[in-house]
Known about the structure:
- The chain is mostly beta strands.
- The chain has no helices and 32 strands.
Amino acid sequence: NGATSSPITQTVTQAGTTTSLASSANPSALGNPITLTALVASGAGVPNGSVSFLDGTTNLGTSSLDSSGKAAVQVNLTAGSHSITSTYNASTNFSGSSSPVLTQEVVSGLLFVPVTPCRVVDTRNPNGPFGGPFLSGGTARAFAIPDGSCSIPSTAQAYSLNATVVPKTKLGFLTLFACGQPQPATSTLNSDGRVKAGAAIVPAGTNSSVCAFASDDTDLILDINGYFVLPTSTSLAFYPLAPCRVADTRTAAGPLGGPSLIGNAARTFPILSSSCKVPSTAKAYSLNFTSVPKGSLGFLTTWPAGETQPLVSTLNAPTGAVTANAALLPAGTNGDISVLASNDSDLVIDINGYFAPLTTGGLSLHALPPCRALDTRVPAGSPPINGERDIDIVHSGCGVPASVQAVLLNATVVPQGPLGFLTLWAQGAAQPMVSTLNAGDGAITSNMAIVPTNNGSISAFVSNPSHLILDVLGYFVP
């Protein structure tokens, strides 16, 4: 009781990288707000109690330990030097047999830098750091993203990726995580043997690497469309929007409507002219693409309008199933994006936010180790969701603060039969006319989602009975 950490002075820690936190006449240059995190570890289970954070003699806040022994508070620091310490306040019912060890980190929010989508890994290529061999089932492999050919700097603290698996037979699951951290009990995507894609934002780990674990033998493709850094003069803040439908080619002909996409013919969509109130200051979008193929769809590719089509894919639908995948995509000429489908397909585009220069209302990302916030299969025998369910993210034990304004999730459905769609949105708001994913074939299906929240909770709606798994990957705060 009363164990105190050593001071941390002028440091900021994120994803294993320590950088000088320079003094500045402008406090916002510190990356405010800053999250102070303490982890209390014990040789005998998880301690109980709380942690107080001090700046000299000033108490910046006290937070109870969560189920992992972690406590966190958010603070705004003035320009200059700070010596932050934290004190563990044990509760009377702590029965650990060894003295707890208190460690801490000072975490600054991250801002986004979009890049033209670029292929960084393809294990179908000859053997090499970013090529073969394929991932062997039951093993993890590291990829040092900045060492690839996509010109990603070593200052990147997290990466916005699209992972595509080409399984040898079936694939129980693929998990992406920061190398050097324990492999989480979460998944990025699942496949019954089909080529499938899944978006993910993954913190940079040891040697700036991302680790990929596959439950079964599979080839893996990683495309990158941006990265997150400590605040700079050119990095972009996130501005959430109520989920909104931008385009639907099944509707009447128009710039954001029909006709359907013709195979191997590029089409441009003017995002700024939609009714979703995206401002002209937007430099990148957080989008969800849903393909409704006419038959088999080899791939769908998206990129900034006005640029050369890159050798990447956003999603695949080889069986012709309605398929969705999220993407953070740079804005192109006039704010437009370009899309190409390898085969005839309808396309639906939904938006949940955009990235623009930091001003009032802009949010920064705080990446977290993947954490399971909801699994409706637990305990065994629990009924699936049938309709709407509210989920309290702040009190899920995943370290999301009450100040959260958008949560970064991986959503997985385990349908009991065909599932028309899953929709996620801010609890308390009206259900929007958008979808997060589709599983009309009844297959286990995943997708990344950035979901706005007004009160720390979100709502989920399934059109048909389905179990739902939500893994928290991070959160956005001012």
